[in-house]
Structures are given as structure tokens and as C-alpha cells.
């Protein structure tokens, strides 16, 4: 269920530092937004529309199957209580989302935790980092992102969502390195993707709902 959120976290963990490439506050906001987009692509949430029995600019839960993992279940349960804004949903989810996703990826054998002792000013304290057990999925996600941004390849929905989130939160530079001319191209292309240009004329409802929800979530991240 949380393909977008998991691939975003794996991309941010795929580095020599064995810790995410973004500071914790921005990381948790991005992961929370990604879980919401996973729900949107599964058609379990959508933004309110004219005629809905809810205020404008809210996200609402839709009925359907049970959520298969903690991160998506927590997000859907939150929205099922009452429609709330994307900004409020992100704020509510960010305290648990990182731990939920770490647990999911650890249980599926994609990452493992390594504890170590660090020397502080007064005492030694234990910290932990997360290591990828297999870089295949992260490498595939990075290759898809580069193909979209550099070669103009039409992106898969998950790739478009990851690019849109990173672009909204000014996070692409944490993963990619280009000269000034390269960044002008990449930022322009990322802006096109974020605007929903990746949606094809004959696309299905799930992709349309993902793009529409991403627009609401981008505004929340930018704010």
C-alpha cells in the first residue's frame, strides 16, 4: 500500500551516512505527505469537491478494504474520523510515520537497524542507524526518477509522486547533484511533473485522484 512513502524513504536512506538525507522535521512531513498520496492512489481518500457535505480544501476518507500496514492504516483512520486539511493531516501523522515505515521495511527485510554508542559531553548514549539490506529497489527508484527528469520519460505514478513531493519541499538537491544549467533543467521538469503534466488523456481514475490530491498536498508542504 505505501509504495510511494517506502520508495521515498529508501531513496533518502541510500547514502554512505546511513541516515536520511533530509533533516528530521522535513523528512517526517514528506513521509506523511507520501502516505497520504499512497491512500489517494488506492482511491481511499480524495480532496473535497463542490457538493460534498464537508468544508472546502479538506481531505476525506472513502470506504473500501482494510489497510494492510500501520502507516496507511493510521492515516486512513485519522481521516475517517472527520475531513481535515492536508496541512492538518500531515501535522497529525508526522510523529509516527517514520517509525511506522521503518518497521514495515524492517519486517519485509529491506532495511536493518544498527545500534552504536556515541560519546556525548556527559555520558555515552546509544543511537541507531538504518542500513539498506538490498539497494535494488532504491536504485530502480533513482533510475526512474533520473529518466523522468533528465530524459523526459513519462513517469509511473509513484515516480511522479516522489518528484512532486521533493520539488514542493525543495528536497531534490538532497538526492541529486547537477551544475547550474542542469538544475535549471531539472527544476523546470520537476515543476511540470508537479503540475500534473504526467497525467495521460486516457489515464485511469486512480492516477487522476493521485494528481488532484498531490496538488492539495503540495500547497500544504509549501506553506
> Which regions contain 5 or more consecutive residues with pLDDT less than 50?
none
CATH class: Mainly Alpha
What order do the helices and strands follow? Answer: HHEEHHHEEHHHH
By CATH's scheme, which homologous superfamily applies? Answer: yeast vps74-n-term truncation variant domain like
N- and C-termini, Cα separation: 27 Å
Please characterize this protein's 3D structure.
This protein is mainly alpha-helical. It has a single domain (3-222), classed as yeast vps74-n-term truncation variant domain like (yeast vps74-n-term truncation variant fold), CATH 1.10.3630.10. 54% of the residues lie in helices and 11% in strands. The strands form two sheets. A two-stranded antiparallel ribbon has the order 1-2. Strands 3-4 form a two-stranded antiparallel sheet. Helix 2 packs across helix 3 (70-81), helix 2 runs antiparallel to helix 9 (205-222) and helix 7 (157-168) crosses helix 8 (180-194). The longest helix has 18 residues, at 24-41. The two termini are 27 Å apart. The mean pLDDT is 91.
Secondary-structure map:
Layout: H1 3-13, H2 24-41, E1 45-47, E2 59-61, H3 70-81, H4 86-93, H5 97-107, E3 111-119, E4 124-132, H6 136-151, H7 157-168, H8 180-194, H9 205-222
Antiparallel strand pairs: 1-2, 3-4
